[in-house]
Design brief:
The chain is of the alpha/beta class. It is 35% helix and 24% strand. It has helices spanning 17-30, 81-84, 111-120, 127-137, 143-159, and strands at residues 5-12, 34-40, 49-57, 70-75, 88-95. A hairpin with an 8-residue loop joins strand 2 and strand 3. Helix 1 (17-30) packs across helix 4 and helix 3 packs across helix 5 (143-159). The longest helix is centred in the C-terminal third of the chain and has 17 residues, at 143-159.
């Protein structure tokens, strides 16, 4: 793949935006891509807006996704969809919290991983790299729950 893939993950402080971007960057790296990542914390400690850009491909020079050029936008909080929509390119993929049915998650803190599951269906990164990245970035006691959440997100994306 010669094209650089641009992904923006957005939400509110405490929702796991940065952890989700760490997992995405790790999975892309495991798949053999050059990866760059940047973060905008804002008032993250007070529940303010947080976003993280992840870019990967054969060769990536800048970690920042230019406005209007995100191939995928993953949003963990409904109120942040419109705030961040401007980063998405025309025809880009928007994955919002409505991808996961209310009450479908065993723990709502795993929404970030569930939405990564949905995202994984749109990217050329093998599933085993995603799972390895999830396990590398989360405590062992959380692996089973997050494996289930990831699978739930993949299934939800397949239904759309």
């Amino acid at each position: 793949m010669n094209k650089v893939i641009n992904v923006v993950i957005a939400g509110l402080g405490g929702q796991g935006v940065l952890k989700a971007s760490d997992i995405l960057a790790d999975a892309a790296f495991r798949a053999g891509f050059d990866v760059k990542k940047s973060e905008l914390h804002g008032m993250s400690q007070r529940g303010g807006s947080v976003s993280s850009d992840v870019r990967f491909g054969a060769e990536v020079w800048s970690p920042m996704v230019p406005t209007g050029e995100a191939d995928c936008l993953v949003v963990l909080e409904e109120t942040q969809v419109e705030v961040n929509r401007g980063v998405l390119r025309e025809g880009g993929v928007l994955i919002g919290p409505d991808f996961i049915a209310p009450g479908a998650l065993k723990n709502k803190k795993s929404l970030n991983v569930a939405l990564l599951g949905a995202l994984s269906t749109t990217l050329e990164i093998p599933e085993e790299h995603w799972l390895a990245a999830i396990h590398a970035n989360l405590a062992e006691k959380l692996h089973r729950l997050n494996d289930q959440s990831f699978a739930l997100g993949r299934a939800a994306a397949g239904e759309r």
